[in-house]
Design a protein that fits this description.
heterodimer; A: 260 residues; alpha/beta; TIM Barrel; 41% helix; 15% strand; B: 376 residues; eight-stranded parallel barrel; two-stranded antiparallel sheet; 13 helices; 11 strands; 14% strand
Chain lengths: 260, 376
Amino acid sequence: MLTIAGKTFHSHLLLGSGKFQSALQMQQAVRASGTELVTLALKRLQPGAPLDDLFSPLQVLGVQLLPNTSGARTAEEAVQAALLAREAVGTHWLKLEIHPEPKYLLPDPRETLKAAEQLCDLGFVVLPYCSADPLHCKQLEQAGCAAVMPLGAPIGSNQGLQNRAMLEIIIEQANIPVIIDAGIGAPSDATLALELGANAVLVNTAIASSTDPVRMAQAFRLAVEAGVLAQQSGLGMRQVRAQASSPLEPGFAHLLAGLS
Amino acid sequence: MPVPIANFQLTQQQFDTLQAQSCLPDQAAVQRALTAAKPSFADLQALLSPAAGEFLPELLARATQLKRQRSGRTLSLFAPLYLSNLCSNECSYCGFSRSVAVKRRILTVAEALQETTAIQSLGISQILLVTGEHQRKAGVDYLLEVTQALRPQVARLMLESQPLDARDYQQLRVAGIDAVMLYQETYDPQSYARHHTFGAKADMTNRLAAPSRVAQAGITQLGMGVLLGLSDWRTDVLLLAQHLRYLQQHWYQLAFSVALPRLKPCASQSTQQSGVSDREYLQLLCALKIFAPEISLSISTRDSPALRDLLLSSIACSASAGSKTQPGGYAVSPQSLAQFSIDDERSPQEIAAMLRVNGVQPVWQDWHPVLGRYPA
């Protein structure tokens, strides 16, 4: 179970709805992935358009919608877009994204924190896409964010968990869910993120830009389920040398303790 | 102390040296470039070379993969709105040059709004304002007036006009210009001088410095390009890429679109040709996309429907559709003479239908005034 802001989800996979070749393919991928949380880009919402390519197809899926502020370049723009989203999409859940740098689309930490503080005060459930910086993540947590979404690698790069060392610290220190957001390129990356203790992953490019997005969505569903099971079961430690496979038996421990 | 504005420098010797190298790369160099994680300028040279012509399917496959990974299976549609064909420049290749006997017209603000409504009735709300160079009648005051009037109506407003001052660009940004297109035409100083014989445009240094002024003014989307056919295209494209990287290093927030139109016949030059074949055109577009996947390739209606079907479904990020290339062409005065001939006359809805068949989603907007950013 994944709990964010008091709401519980069975799936630990979040999906982005962009980059698909059609609305139908996006719907099929959402269904195959088992996700219950799907982002949609506010910048694509056409005011007054009764039947658009994005919002209407998402509404029929019955998932929790997570509007994102992609395209906003400053805190001010993100806050204004969020206020509009609350009205247009009818949810106070928000994925905060401020990435004014177009080459790697890296999040702007200063503007993200500033916007997060304002949006939390305005009563939004804020899930910020953020740098894999443990201190920054703590600051976002203190601002009242419902989760943090640090990047595994540059968005859309499919490079996997390049920021692993920092992600491990973020996971260790967080008191709110950690959702690894960008860079997850293969189902095995998603499994690894969950094995490391992340609460969820968000995937878009790896699914939408694969040759068969619907099957790839299913692959991610299975990979995330495997990661969750592994996390719950307790992973063994990695060792350089071989170790006896059985842990010390309780009886032996008792005997050991009795030795002078 | 203020940092001096950074300007890209270029000499004839630089151009000539690169041109001398342009045909040297061999097949091995092309293969290396195709698999490079971060292609270098040498890799781009290889991808632009004649040797890479043999690898066109590989180039297209790689560029398409990079485009889809970066921007998805989507294509953004826009239309040009020609505001004025008044021009005080003499450019050898242009149907709106000052000496060409063509009826001159500058749209009033009311007429520009009428044209906008006509474009929007085609389904398009991303608009590129185009003017000839006329400081007095189509200067920054006129552009500001048009921008302010159109801004609340449209999803995206871009500008292709004469180079302006940083202060003018700043005013236009505040008024709501999202992007500025500044095509260099050619990076070959000799050819530039030969083709631009009169008017402010004859000053190549000023034009070369203009993108820096756009960036300085805080405009974050810049359109660059050359007119293929004025000089050696391999070298022009390579220098365009160098200019782009230079700007990127100095303004990290700058996003780029690139358009590389080929010289076509116009009112004053009925026979001119670019000398760049469709295969070479495809090669250079793919080369640029592989070199810099973050740039958005923009395709105009100058290209044929068959070629556009391929480009729009594979490596392009944006394209114009339903274009009219004369002031008033959509509604006010549809019979007037165009700047250049259009090859793809399909409507935006027909283009959208073609895209859907090819597994690409048309995108009609990337931001909207109701989301904020612009003055009300």
